[in-house]
Write a structure and sequence with these properties.
By secondary structure, the chain is of the alpha+beta class. The protein has 7 helices and 25 strands. About 20% of the residues lie in helices and about 40% in strands. The chain has an 8-stranded antiparallel sheet.
Length: about 375
């Protein structure tokens, strides 16, 4: 096997596919990347849950395949002094990597030992801009559950229904919903749950531009294809939470708030909260004042904001991180905060439209907190 390619193309492929390389210590072949050379070069990483493949052009002198250690290959390619890289592999699986005056000889692994990656039927699909998919993932990933005893909530629900593309995450304490209208057929309907870890890797490698990402969902796997890159992930099985039933049917108090002002106030009050001291932020909605306070073993903090008159008084407590995650995910400078009582969840919605809804459950307040 022998080929020559641009250093930047190889470096990008190695960097992207390394996100799917197995954990250190699993086995030498699982710590590696599969390089398959035909008329072009395809680099693949696979950890039994997620497979990432990227293809780029090269000058091919001899076809073949090989598995090279992902970390070492990445370190070498990034530090080569030239813009061109040549890789040669002999019959004894000795790989030679050259760039400028630099040369490295690496012991490679047999490509036959690399596990077979899942294949996905590409009969059914839908497409959306990569930048929009990144935005949707960013707006819901924070609410993915971590409880392995409830595997289905460790992923995000993806739905296509009546031209609406929707992503939903829930962890038992909060709910995140993002939705957009897409130019697809009215009859297209899909529903599947993608693991949060896979979505995290997908977010990292998706280009933040208007190039299209095509999604091919099946029963057990889904394929995301974009920019000469293919990411295949297993899907989570089971019935997702009836998230619509979790949203309050009525909230008599609806206040239009300035997002950055509220975030700053919550961040200031949270300065005395730590991983060890997790007391809630107390929010007192009193007429045209939002009074925020917190008491921990370190002391007490207080802040307040001027708000539109809510016409009532409601005192409610929140986990500061859960509250801030939802506030930061709101896309607009102002949003609508919905409340019912100190024991009911709050919701955050756009002033116009329905592109998102975030729900945060309250923390029961104790005297003196």
């Amino acid at each position: 096997m022998r080929f020559t390619c641009e250093k930047s193309a190889l470096n990008e492929a190695v960097s992207v596919c390394s996100h799917a390389v197995g954990a250190k210590g699993t086995s030498p072949v699982m710590e590696g990347l599969l390089l398959e050379v035909t008329n072009s070069v395809t680099v693949s990483g696979f950890n039994y849950k997620t497979a990432i493949q990227k293809t780029f052009p090269a000058e091919v002198a001899e076809m073949g395949s090989v598995v090279l250690n992902a970390r070492i290959l990445s370190d070498i390619v990034r530090r080569l002094p030239s813009d061109s890289v040549e890789i040669t592999v002999d019959d004894r699986l000795m790989a030679t990597i050259r760039g400028g005056a630099s040369e490295f000889n690496l012991i490679a692994s047999d490509p036959q030992e690399f596990p077979e990656m899942p294949s996905v039927d590409q009969a059914e699909c839908f497409s959306l801009p990569s930048s929009l998919l990144r935005e949707m993932i960013s707006g819901t990933l924070f609410a993915v559950g971590e409880n392995e005893n409830k595997p289905i909530i460790t992923g995000s629900l993806i739905e296509i229904d009546s031209r609406t593309f929707r992503m939903v995450s829930v962890d038992g304490y909060r709910l995140a919903v993002r939705q957009e209208e897409l130019e697809i057929g009215e009859e297209e309907k899909f529903s599947f749950v993608v693991p949060g870890e896979s979505l995290k890797e997908l977010y990292r490698i998706l280009p933040d531009e208007d190039s299209m990402c095509t999604v091919y969902p099946q029963k057990k796997h889904a394929l995301f294809a974009f920019d000469n890159t293919r990411m295949t992930t297993r899907l989570l099985e089971g019935e997702f939470l009836n998230w619509r039933a979790a949203i309050p049917a009525e909230q008599p108090i609806n206040i239009e708030l300035d997002r950055s002002e509220i975030i700053s106030a919550v961040e200031r009050v949270s300065l005395i909260i730590s991983e060890r001291l997790k007391n809630p932020v107390r929010c007192n909605f009193d007429g045209n004042r939002l009074k925020l306070s917190c008491t921990t073993a370190l002391g007490r903090s207080y802040d307040e904001c001027v708000i539109p008159d809510c016409g009532a008084q409601v005192e409610i407590g929140f986990n500061n991180r859960y509250l801030l995650d939802a506030l930061r995910a709101c896309q607009d400078d102002t949003f609508i905060l919905g409340l019912k009582s100190g024991l009911s969840p709050c919701t955050m919605r756009p002033v116009e439209g329905n592109k998102y809804i975030y729900l945060v459950l309250p923390v029961r307040l104790k005297a003196g907190e």
